[in-house]
Amino acid sequence: MKTYLVTGGAGFIGSNFIHYMLKKYNDIKIINLDKLTYAGNLENLKDVEKDSRYSFVQGDICDKQIVEQIFTNNNVDYVVNFAAESHVDRSIKEPEVFAMTNVLGTVNLLNVAKNFWQEREGFKEGKKFLHVSTDEVYGSLGETGYFMETTPIDPHSPYSSSKAGSDLMVKAYADTYKMPVNITRCSNNYGPFQFPEKLIPLLINNCLNKKALPVYGDGMNIRDWLYVEDHCKAIDMVINNGRLGEVYNVGGHNERTNIHIVKTVIAYINENVDSEVTENLIKYVEDRKGHDRRYGIDPTKIKEELGWEPETPYEEGIKKTIKWYLDNQDWMKNVTSGQYQNYYTSMYGSK
Ligand code: NAD
Ligand code: DAU
């Protein structure tokens, strides 16, 4: 019986991960520590809230006392650190909270885990700290080449810099204390439960409300899209079989320009929902400051060492995703209303 402390489990990828793990394993226990910021939503976990293997603690990963309490009350085997401020646009407006949660929060988790796991000689058997990171720490690619685990870190936004800072602290705990850690660096995820400030759910939401579809710059920036369940599977594999201290890149060789994504969403909604939704909704707007041009992951290491490969082709994943948002319009309304609405409109009121 393994006990997982999952941080940020009420967010997009964290909630998908909790669903994935509870479906896959009978004999696990998951404690979800989440602050419930605007991006964290317990509705994402409604169907597991009564599962005896799952429990929720509302709290901040920066709070030493609360993290220590979890370790005192539970024999935590794995920390899976999803908790973060995750949106690049917000990081440009308010970098401080990104440094606080992403860097200091991660250090706090590392420190408590180290204190509970460290023995006279080394660390207790079977423990691991898995830090969920991003391909954005590598910066931006030109027209050719891919990010490899050996690519130097070169972040540009306050978000990616804070993630790079946290990655380096994880590395420091491995190098200095020999703490058992892994870092995963994944490309852009899409799928159910993604907060509609991110490109794909924002497009769907705006199409359904016949609002303009904001395309930053020339729309030719490239992202490497991966269906969220494939990311969850990779994390599970790295927890179980990843070599200690290693970084694993996760991506599905699925590069698309932003304008291609926009046109795909429009075409689906035009065909299946509302023929009045057309490319006339596209609105080219001012570019994101410091906008990275292209991301592309080389996933050879995780494929060769752990046998991971993405299972969901993009054409299937994007249809499944749009359909999920169409079937869950109440979810969309709920997460963008109430306290979320204030934050959302203050940032995105003009879109
Ligand atoms: P998200 O914004 O949807 O969710 C983040 C969660 O963390 C929320 O539930 C929020 O309430 C919680 N949180 C924020 N600050 C906290 C704090 N101080 N203490 C406790 N909880 C806090 O993010 P996501 O898209 O699910 O991303 C999860 C992780 O994966 C992040 O670390 C992100 O950097 C990384 N990642 C994301 C992507 C992507 O495409 N979304 C790709 C690669 C890596
Ligand atoms: O690459 C992994 C990263 O992917 C994660 O680490 C981040 O947490 C996650 O937010 C995501 O970052 P991006 O900045 O790539 O995602 P976003 O959905 O914000 O934007 C995707 C692309 O679409 C990007 O080039 C900016 C563009 N865009 C975005 C929005 C919200 C638009 O053109 N219009 C928009 O309204």
What does this structure look like?
With 351 residues, the protein is of the alpha/beta class. The chain has a domain of 242 residues: 3-Layer(aba) Sandwich (Rossmann fold). The protein contains twelve helices and 13 strands. The strands form four sheets. Strands 3-2-1-4-5-6-11 form a seven-stranded parallel sheet, sandwiched between helices. The structure holds nicotinamide-adenine-dinucleotide (NAD) and 2'deoxy-thymidine-5'-diphospho-alpha-D-glucose (DAU). Nicotinamide-adenine-dinucleotide binds next to helix 1, helix 4 and strand 5. The site of nicotinamide-adenine-dinucleotide has 30 residues, from helix 1, helix 4 and strand 5.
Tell me, briefly, the overall form.
Answer: globular
- How many helix segments? 12
CATH class of the domain at 2-191 and 225-254 and 291-312: Alpha Beta
List cofactors, ions and other ligands: nicotinamide-adenine-dinucleotide, 2'deoxy-thymidine-5'-diphospho-alpha-D-glucose
> Strand fraction band?
15-25%
Query: Distance N terminus to C terminus?
Result: 48 Å
How does CATH name the architecture of the domain at 2-191 and 225-254 and 291-312? 3-Layer(aba) Sandwich
Structural Rg: 20 Å
Low-confidence stretches: none
| Biggest sheet record | 7 strands, parallel
The name of the CATH superfamily of the domain at 2-191 and 225-254 and 291-312 reads: NAD(P)-binding Rossmann-like Domain
Sheet with most strands: strand arrangement: 3-2-1-4-5-6-11
